[in-house]
């Protein structure tokens, strides 16, 4: 059963990506020449809310092209299955049980009423993006005419909330590196989007704290705060005196930009400084931050905070050698969840290692930069050390390398777990058990 | 040669399964109790914990179209009956089943069991035979001698 739905979700993603690529290839969408592989790359990057670019968004695309990219980001961000559900909500009143199941699988949500939940998702998305767009438009109007400022405001707000990292500025956010309001609003949108709809809606429903907050929400919120601060201090300490990055800035800007960097590394992919100037240790630690990602059921990629948290909790209880099941906040963690977490980590790491190896052998680039690019694609982050100009490192790859990055983005967005299901196939239910065999570890 | 399936790994079933395995005859050993399956695991690859009244489960572990299946479920007569029915449905040729009392045995026969075994009766007969062979039976005139009650009980129990 599950297998069938995973397949339909996968086909849906592929269909949207291809449709986007074809539309971007139309003459009305782009300026100058655009190769199909680059259109496909852009479409994938937008649909998977990654933000890696092989062609300049503002210089090489017309307004229509930008609108297509924005639509793809929004579709990819909300999740294509919730769009299907919205469609059904308008067409008929009731969803079949199977359709509800498929949606739950796509969003990976606990039991909730799907119809009501989708409506809530939509209103959250609309309200948050509108507020973000208004503030950004106000700020951008200092530099642009009002209509252009409005378009820039909407584009960046949607791109930030969906954790895409696409920007209409050729230098991404470097021009606003000292602007607390712009960086602050964008960071806030990124974090909100990254928490996941489940957490955002629970926090909204339960804003008086009359009910117990679920441990999922607790872990995601605490984990987000911890990781942002951890990343910030890490970059501050490594990059403090690096003249290519933080070195030349004032202390306030150092704090602001390392915070922005830390927020972006986990999911979004905007940058307010040239990342190629980062030290190798920063690049390496940031791959770990990227792999961790943010909350499940949101717009962020990566293996998700909860996955890592579950494994850490399990390790703690193994070391403690107690007969108790692993638990946190006075709630037991199911064995099934721990198994799933371990599987996700194994598959994700395996996938990243494999693609990195392939690219190392086929592309002429240093190891740390390739690793950074692959992790960025797989975790749908979108940061890149760049090609020396304004584009991502991927632009220097040949077509095969670009396809490998495209595959990484799809695999990362769809979820390694679902991807694994596609490869392994559906297991039939069995009615017997084998006796236990002893293995010494 | 097709494997011999042993369903139910109580004392009787376990002994049979173990002996067959030691004779290098391929077996499929099945019980609903994981602990018993665990003990069997050292003698064969094919030890499974499952509900033997389920046709699907039996089919999954390969208990169909076999030459010989031994059912050694005693205490739970319902399970014994349902298992035998499932085995017959799965085209197993020769089903040998243990019964704990004559009624049980009669039901099993009617379900098509080829041979019904009463293990306690067999054990009793063997022991009796040994006793009769080994003890020099004294001919005693019962009427003239005070009977030692214990002797009588021993024999009656057999």
Helices and strands in order, then pairings?
The complex is a heterodimer of chains A (441) and B (158).
Chain A: H1 2-25, H2 36-47, H3 57-60, H4 63-78, H5 80-91, H6 97-107, H7 114-140, H8 146-161, H9 180-195, H10 197-205, H11 215-239, H12 251-268, H13 280-292, H14 305-320, E1 327-328, E2 331-332, H15 335-362, H16 367-378, H17 399-414, H18 416-424, E3 432-433
Helix pairs in contact in A: 1-2, 1-4, 1-18, 2-4, 2-17, 4-5, 4-8, 5-6, 5-7, 7-8, 7-9, 8-9, 9-10, 9-12, 10-11, 11-12, 11-13, 12-13, 13-16, 14-15, 15-16, 15-17, 16-17, 17-18
Chain B: E1 4-7, H1 11-22, E2 27-31, H2 34-40, E3 47-50, H3 55-60, E4 68-71, H4 77-89, E5 94-98, H5 102-110, E6 115-117, H6 119-134, H7 149-157
If you had to describe this structure to a student in words, what would you say it looks like?
- The complex is a heterodimer of chains A (about 450) and B (about 160).
- Chain A has about 450 residues and is mostly helical.
- In chain A, about 65% of the residues lie in helices and about 0% in strands.
- Chain A has helices at about 1-25, 35-45, 55-60, 65-80, 80-90, 95-105, 115-140, 145-160, 180-195, 195-205, 215-240, 250-270, 280-290, 305-320, 335-360, 365-380, 400-415, 415-425, and strands spanning about 325-330, 330, 430-435.
- The relative contact order of chain B is 0.12.
- The two termini of chain B are about 40 Å apart.
- The radius of gyration of chain B is 20 Å and the shape is globular.
- Chain B has helices at about 10-20, 35-40, 55-60, 75-90, 100-110, 120-135, 150-155; strands at about 5, 25-30, 45-50, 70, 95-100, 115.
- Chain B is α/β, with parallel strands linked by helices.
- A six-stranded parallel β-sheet of chain B has the order 3-2-1-4-5-6, with helices on both faces.
- At the A-B interface, strand 3 of A face helix 2, strand 3 and helix 3 of B.
- Strand 3 (about 430-435) of chain A pairs antiparallel with strand 3 (about 45-50) of chain B.
